[in-house]
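hi support,

uploading two proteins for the ticket. first:
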Amino acid sequence: MGAVTPKTIAQLDLAVSHCRACRRLVNWREKVASEKRAAFRDETYWGKAVPGFGPADAAVLIVGLAPAAHGANRTGRMFTGDRSGDVLYAALHAVGLANQPTSTHIDDGLTLHGVRITAPVHCAPPDNKPTVTERDRCQKWLDAELRLLKPTLKSIVVLGGFGWQALLPVLRKNGWEIPRPNPKFGHGVEVDITAPGHSAGSTPAPGTVRLFGSYHVSQQNTFTGRLTPSMIENVLRAAGSHAGLSVSAAAS
C-alpha cells in the first residue's frame, strides 16, 4: 500500500486515486479517457483509479465489480454515469438510502444515507473483466476500507459472484469468522459472520456483520429481467434495516 497506511477514509480515497499498480489497467483506463465515447467527446474523463463513495461511518457497504469504462472511469464516482448506476441509485433512493434517484456526475448533489459503495477492483478493465492477479493486487484497498469501516459496519451487500469471491478472504483476514466451506453466492442469500472479538452463537453477536447477495446491476441482468427493480430494492431494504438505518417500506 506504500509507505503510509491510510488512517482515514479520506486518506484511503486519495491513495486509491493515485494507484498505478496494474500496468494493463492503467493503460486501458487512460486509453479510454483519451479516445472517449462519441457521446462524451466534450467531457474530461477521470481516467484514474476510482475510490469508494459514501460516508466514512457507513453502516452498509455495497461491493460491486469494477468501474465502467465510460461510467465511473469518466465521472470519477462509483456507478455514476452509466446504466448500472441508474438502476442502483434509483433503488437506493426508493428505499430511502439516497437523497435522489440519479447519479450523473460527481457534483450532482447526490448523498448516500449510511451507505458506502466500493469495488474489489478500482480501475476500469478491458471487457469489464479484471484478471485474478489484478483483483488480488487491488485487495489491499478493500482490506483497508473494511478495517476503517469496522467500527460502524453492520451489513454488506455484494453485487455478483466476482465481488463475493473477492470479499470473503479479505473479511477473514480482518478477523471475521466466515463459515467453512465458504458460503455460496446467490441472489437473496444472507449470511451472518461473527465480528472480531466476539463468539459465535445462536443469535448475532454485537458487531456481527450480515452479508447480502444480489445479482449485479449490469445491463446483462437488468435488461433480461434476471434482476428487477423490486429485487434489488428488497435486498437493499433488508440490508439497511439490519444495519438500523431508516428505510422505506416496500410498495404494496
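and the second one:
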Amino acid sequence: MELDSTEAATSWLEYGLENHGLELEFLHDSRPTRREVSHATLNVFTMSEPGSGRRKRSTPEELMPLHKGRRSRCKGDNNKKCCRHELTVMFKDLKGFEFIVYPKGFDAGYCKGRCPPRYNPAHHHALLQSLLWKEDRKRVPKPCCAPSKLDQLMIVYFDENQSTQLKVSYWKNIQVLECACS
C-alpha cells in the first residue's frame, strides 16, 4: 500500500501549521478497526531550494532498513510491485526428472514486479542504484525484482547403479523464499 502525504506536508509548510505528526486509521464498514502492521517503511522524498542551508548527512542504515526476513508474498492479485509468486513444479511433467521419487512436486516460487525507488532494496547498492535511476534514467537501469533468499530441496531418487537402493541429495538454491529489488 502506498500513501502520498505530500498534500498534508505542503499545507504544514505553506500555511505555517504546526506539525502534529501523521496518524493512520484503518476503517472496516466505516468503523475504526485495529490492524497489525509489520515491516512498515516510510520513504521521504524532499526537494530543497538552493541556498537553504546544509543538510544532515545520513548513514546507509538510516536511509534504508535492510531487507530482513520479509516473505514478500504478493498480497492480492493487483499487486504490481516486486513480490514472490507461487510456482508449483511437478517433476513427472519435466523431461529428464522422472527418476525423482520424492517429492513429487514443490513450490519453487518466482519473483516478479516493479521496483520503484527505495522499494524493498536487497542491499545498499540496490538502494543507491534506485536513487540514481530516479535522478537520471538514462545513466543507470532500475533495480530488478529477484530472489533475495533461496532454500534447498531434499530429493529422493533410485541409485543408478543399484536400482533397489534409494539415495538422498540436497539441491541448493532451488526454492525462492523471498524477493527484493536488486
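thanks. also noticed: Residues 68 and 122 are 9 Å apart (CA to CA).
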